[in-house]
């Protein structure tokens, strides 16, 4: 199995990352990708990955962190791109992410409860485009985050798409939306599926429509704990729970779990241009 999205670089895993990785390996997880959400977490992801053969990294600025760039605007984006560029030649860096657009109003965040207004959304868009360009320049894959901004992100992707992103990009924790699936299909993108598929019926129905050739597994640790662990409050979520997700998808799709594991692992290797 390959966990294509786990935040082992977050404070929730401070001082226990090595134990988390060991449990993941014991559960059958053969590879992991740690995505950054800003410069600090991107750098931390690299530090962790250097200790393990089969852990890889994506570096990037999450759209929610555009709040921190409001004062400097375009200049702040340029500075952050330069900072990411200082990390991008690290051997473990295989992707840019997670990047995208996000209009969701977060209730728990260091920026307070703030609405994404037109000005901030414009900043998110500029940040997304700059990071897509960075991915092209350095031939990296894309991990795309979208929350409640489908029309806007599809407009940007349609306008800025490059064939070099085909089979090298993923809608992380993809919203159950047929427009997103259609775009992914037409542009040969992957669809990331997480633990919420075990309790979100819309996600379950959506996954039935996704070809197995397009699926990759992700835990989004420490978030999105799958059932029944969610009801048992066995937090935080971690990569060792990936098999729970694989089992559930196998049940939903009526496919043997070994085939789900084999194909999604192969897909992850294609997504990040890794040898098998």
UniProtKB/TrEMBL annotation:
Gene Ontology terms: cellular component: cytosol
Alphabetical list of InterPro entries matching this protein: DNase_TatD-rel_CS, Metal_Hydrolase, TatD-like
Q: Which domain of life is it from?
A: Bacteria
Q: Which Pfam families match?
A: TatD_DNase
Gene Ontology molecular function: hydrolase activity, acting on ester bonds; metal ion binding
Q: Check the UniProt entry and state the signal peptide residues, or none.
A: none
Binding residue positions for a divalent metal cation 2: 145, 172
Task: Give the residues the record marks as binding a divalent metal cation 1.
Answer: 5, 7, 98, 220
The UniProt keywords, alphabetically, are: Hydrolase, Metal-binding
Keyword Plastid: yes or no? Answer: no
Q: What is this protein called?
A: Hydrolase TatD
